[in-house]
Amino acid sequence: QGMEDDEDVDLELLLDVLRRTRGQPQVRRESSWGAWSDLLQAHGRRTTAREGARRGGKEKAATELSQKSSQQQKSSRFRKDSSDPESLRTRDKYQRVQADRIRTAYRDGKAQVRLLSATDIVTSSSISWDVPCALKFYQDAYGIVQGCTPSTARQGVCSRIVVDEFGEPDEMRDLAIATEAAMVNLFHQGGSTSLAPVSSLERLGVKGGLLVQYFLAKVKLRIMREFGLEVIYDSGALLTRLKGDPPRDEWDVEPGHVYWNPHVDKANIPTYDYSALLYLNTHGKDFHGGEFSFIDDDADRIVQPRAGRLLIFTSGPENLHQVREVTRGTRYVLAMWFTCSKEDQYRDED
Ligand SMILES: O=C(O)CCC(=O)C(=O)O
Ligand SMILES: [Fe+2]
Known about the structure:
single chain, alpha+beta, Jelly Rolls, 8 helices, globular, disordered N terminus
């Protein structure tokens, strides 16, 4: 027993990560501190426009699978916080797929590919890297929602997308200040402090609260546009502060807490479909360490946080990732998750 379910997830698709960019992404290098982007430029030259992408056999198979999936929509159902056997089975299966991905892909000595450094600025509207979707993984949570579930509109292709200057410097600074104020006298786990902003709008103050609501809506619209979706629903948000030198005080409920575990967002909350990270400050300037890394079988692919940078990606096992340990300074991020399941959308009472 045990292993049979794993075959449902088409993980061999993950073995050959397709790297393609869409349109004509442009990246400029900031002249002041740090110097890097040759790798990126080399990458850009090798990529082809998404529209011109060849539809290979794997993608065709993925389309067929997606069509088949839509006919079997009600085959299983995950319910958040539920202990019914179906939900427990789904959660258990998702955790096993995550463990499998970690076992295969998380190891020392891998190639380190920097997709974007903090000093690179994406000047085109966005830059994207495509990865094959783990389609079955999406189906099992609540069925397929055409026009929303990752890849249903895109022949089995999932993505990682970066938009720079999504938030203005002033907005990012104001939100970081509001976050810092809201986190006074809050419990923390070692270097990590998190706050669910939607249920703590008063705590964030008028400006901070408005900024969170504004960016939730703006990010949602951007995801719909980037992925060509008809609908999408909120599924939760978190403001997180990571400190390189965590204070050893009475608010520390878990000294030495490890927040840099590799994980699949959807393995932890099966109804998540799209993940978004809006960085409020900048690697190398405001903090050291704290890089975001996609953990692929062949390489780690790194995006360094930069104030105003939006990183969005599909939440399934095609996007195993980690945030690396912050070694110095303080890092702020607004993380947001979205679902295609109307029934599972975030409600304040949750
Ligand atoms: O802060 C980041 O860059 C990533 C955070 C993350 O992966 C998560 O909260 O699930
Ligand atoms: Fe995550």
